[in-house]
Design brief:
Structural class: alpha+beta
Number of strands: 11
Strand content: 5-15%
Strand order of the largest sheet: 8-9-10-11
Low-confidence stretches: 290-295, 400-405
Oligomer: single chain
Helix content: 10-25%
Shape: globular
Length: about 400
């Protein structure tokens, strides 16, 4: 839990999504539970059915109000928005009645609520005396999901892919301490860079023996200097998805292109394996209204059978022109770097689901469940879990379970 990993206080959820009002989440049939915590306990008494974006903002403001602004503070506010399920108070939804796509309309309304929350937090930073010596970092975590109201247009691909539409994140840094304000940084910056950057801003120290993946990028952000980062390893996943047509031959004997991977070095980006859904999707594409000018036909068919791509992202951020055939020497150099990265990787492990984690065995709450004593307890519960799992799967095949709306 966060309070065992460096945080003094914690209020929030543990799962990747859930109901914005009830904080209830079903992972699968029969695996449902409550997911709102304060410290290391379920926050039953703190739950008043308030929309989570508003609730988390008020909690953050309360922390600022009770803390001494002359003492350092690190406030990590991980909003649930904007993520499915698409839920939002009606007063925000009314602003977007002109949007025909209901998912897109709800998404826009949720973003407006989030905008208002960030504004209220900023006003609190000013009111309680933090603002003049503050750095605010705002960042999304991945690209949008077009089928759920998101849009990455004109970038290619979507959430869950290694195309730019899946890996680029919207973000900004706001602070009176910025030397150059109102500018756009085109420097390479990765999420691992925030740790050393914020530690140095807080006048902390970093141990050279830590071998961090991240860099202090404050001068690149604040002054527009060159980033110390020269490359970004987007991903290597040798297990999850394999390209049937990939091979060592396609990777010049350096790399098996069946493996899903992506690497950025300077202006170049290399992809191998199955990068994921690869269309360009304009906003409103999935509108229920059959408006011809809102539908697109940019289906990718020319790259079927491929397992390796090379793009100049600076010149072609939309990944429309594959240059892998024109610049084989660049491909080989990047494959060698990909191989070097892979040699440092910890082996992948996808453990099977353990049904002792079911909230029904833990007070109806999602949370930590394993203890050393579990190894010595009777096996009856495990046997029961396995039989129950089998019955769930049989019932699911018969169509006994319906998706909740």
């Amino acid at each position: 839990m966060p309070t065992q990993r460096g945080f003094d206080t914690f209020f929030g959820s543990l799962l990747g999504s859930g109901d914005y009002y009830s904080h209830y989440k079903c992972d699968s049939p029969g695996m449902c539970g409550y997911d709102l915590h304060e410290g290391e306990e379920a926050a039953w008494e703190q739950d008043h059915g308030i929309y989570s974006t508003i609730m988390y903002t008020q909690k953050a403001i309360n922390i600022l109000a009770s803390h001494n602004p002359k003492r350092p503070i690190f406030l990590y506010l991980a909003y649930q928005a904007v993520h499915s399920p698409l839920q939002v108070p009606a007063r925000y939804l009314e602003r977007y009645n002109s949007i025909p796509n209901l998912h897109r309309r709800k998404y826009a309304a949720m973003v407006s609520c989030l905008d208002e929350a960030v504004r209220n937090l900023t006003l609190a930073l000013k009111q309680y005396g933090y603002y003049d010596n503050m750095v605010m970092v705002y960042s999304s975590d991945n690209g949008g999901q077009p089928m759920a109201g998101g849009s990455n247009w004109p970038l290619r691909g979507s959430k869950g892919t290694l195309w730019e539409g899946g890996i680029r994140a919207v973000g900004f840094v706001h602070s009176p301490l910025l030397v150059k304000k109102g500018t756009r940084s085109r420097a390479l910056i990765h999420i691992t860079d925030w740790y050393p950057t914020l530690v140095m801003l807080g006048e902390g120290t970093l141990d050279e023996n830590q071998n961090l993946d991240g860099y202090d990028v404050w001068e690149a952000i604040s002054e527009g200097r060159r980033s110390p980062r020269l490359d970004i390893l987007h991903n290597i996943d040798p297990i999850y998805t394999k390209a049937k047509n990939g091979s060592w031959k396609a990777g010049y004997g350096i790399w098996n292109t069946a493996i899903q991977a992506a690497l950025r070095v300077g202006d170049w980006k290399l992809l191998t394996g199955v990068p994921g859904y690869s269309d360009w999707i304009p906003p409103q594409t999935f509108s229920k209204l059959l408006l011809a000018n809102r539908w697109h036909n940019e289906r990718v068919n020319w790259d079927r059978g491929k397992s390796i791509w090379l793009f100049n992202i600076t010149a072609d951020p939309y990944e429309r022109v594959d240059l892998s055939q024109q610049y084989p020497h660049v491909v080989k150099k990047m494959l060698i770097r990909l191989l070097r990265y892979n040699k440092t990787a910890v082996p992948c492990r996808y453990p099977p689901k353990d049904y002792r984690s079911n909230p029904q065995y833990n007070g109806g709450v999602w949370g930590p469940w394993y203890t050393n004593d579990d190894e010595d307890e009777d096996d009856n519960l495990l046997s029961y879990d396995l039989e129950q799992m089998k019955s769930w799967k049989k019932a699911k095949r018969r169509g006994k379970f319906k998706r909740k709306t």
